[in-house]
C-alpha cells in the first residue's frame, strides 16, 4: 500500500474532536455493526475477517469489547493467536491460520494474526530476510484467495500507540488490581525492541496488498470512534440484503 | 511445466520391459519406500505430500495399495477427497485441503486433491475461466508455501489411462462381484466429458509450477514400477539421516 512511515501518523485524536460527542456516535455505530452482523449471518454471502495488530498494550482486547460488544455471539468468533504449539510448528505458518478463517455468514476477529510470523520472528532473527519476503508474498496470495474465492471482506487494523503511552499502560498493569492479570514481565523485555518492531510493522504494512487501517490509540475512545466508523462503512458497502422468502406454504386459513 | 499434450504420451509400458522382472523390482522398491518412510518419521525434518489424480478407474486405489502397502501406518495418512460438505463450500477451495497437509515427519497421500477444483468444476462450467486462472495461481502459491515454509516434498502423479482401457475397467465393475462396490452410474456419465477432462488436465498440468509425473497406467504393473521408481529417487535425494543420540545418561554400571 505504498511506504508507510508510522512516525508521521498521529497516535492521538485531533484537537477539535469532542470526546463526549465522539463517544455518543461510537455507541450508535456499535449498534449499527450489530445490525449489519445480523444481516451478514442471515444472507450468508460474505465472510468478514477483522485483523487486530499492534504493540503490547495497544488496546486490542478493549477494541474487541467496545466495537463488537453489541453483536450476537452466533456468527461471531474471536481468535487469540499465541505462540504456536508443537503440532503447529510442524506445519507452514499459515496452516493454523487457514483453519480459523471465517465461513460465509461469519465474522471472525483475529487478536494478533499471521502477521506475527513476519514480526516477532523477524525482530528476534529466527527467520532470514529471504524467508520474510517469501512469507509476505504468501500472505498476499492467501488474503487474495480468501477475498476472491470466498467473498471475504478483510479489515486489518494497526493499533498505533506511542512509546510513552505504552509505558503508562504497562505501568497500570503493575498498579491496578483489575489489570494484574494482564501483566507479563516479557512485555517489558519486548519493549526494548521497540524500534525493530516499528520497522518490521512499517515494512509489513507497506508490502501488504490489502491495505491496513492505522488507528491512533493513545486515547481509547478515539480508537473506538475510528474503528467503528471504518467497519460500519465497509459493511454498508457490501450492500447486504435480507434473503427473500422461499416457501411452498399454501395454507392461509 | 511447459505445454503438455497427453495424446503424445504412451499409456502403456515399452515393449522391451519384461513384466516379471519389473514386478520383482517393484517389490524391492516398495520395501525401500517403507524404509525411507521410517527415516522420514524418525528425522522429522521433511513432510511428504503425494497427489494422485486421474480419470475414473485410472487405478488410484491400487496404486496406494501397491506402492505404499509396505509402510507403517504411523506417519502415513491417505486422504480421499469427495464432494465438499456444506461447511467446506462456505470456505475457499483450499481451506479443507490445507487442514490435511502433512506435518514434518509425515507422508500424506491425496486420492484426488485441490486440482479437482479446476477440473470437475471447470468441465461442468460451475466456475468461470477467470476463476480457473485465479485458482491455478493460488494452487501454485499454496504448493510453494508448503515447500519453502515446511520442507514439503510434493510428488504429483497423473495416472494416464486410455479411453479404451477405462471402458474395460468400468465394465469389470459391472461384472466382477468383488468390484461391484466400486461401480457408480455417474462414472459413465462423466466419461461422456472425456475430451473436456483431458483438456482441463492438460491445462492444469501445463500451468503447474511444481512439475507432474505422468504415468501410463493401462497395465497396472507398469504403473507401480514407474511410481515406485520416482518415489524412491525423490526420497533418496532428501538425504535423510537417523537422528544422533541425545542423552544425559551416565550410569554404565
TrEMBL record, chains A, B:
Key words of the record: Kinase, Transferase
GO molecular function: polyphosphate kinase activity
InterPro entries (alphabetical): P-loop_NTPase, Polyphosphate_phosphotransfera, PPK2-rel_1, PPK2-related
Record bears the keyword Ribonucleoprotein: no
Polyphosphate kinase-2-related domain boundaries: 17-240
NCBIfam families: PPK2_rel_1
Protein name, per record: PPK2 family polyphosphate:nucleotide phosphotransferase
Organism lineage: Bacteria, Pseudomonadati, Bacteroidota, Saprospiria, Saprospirales
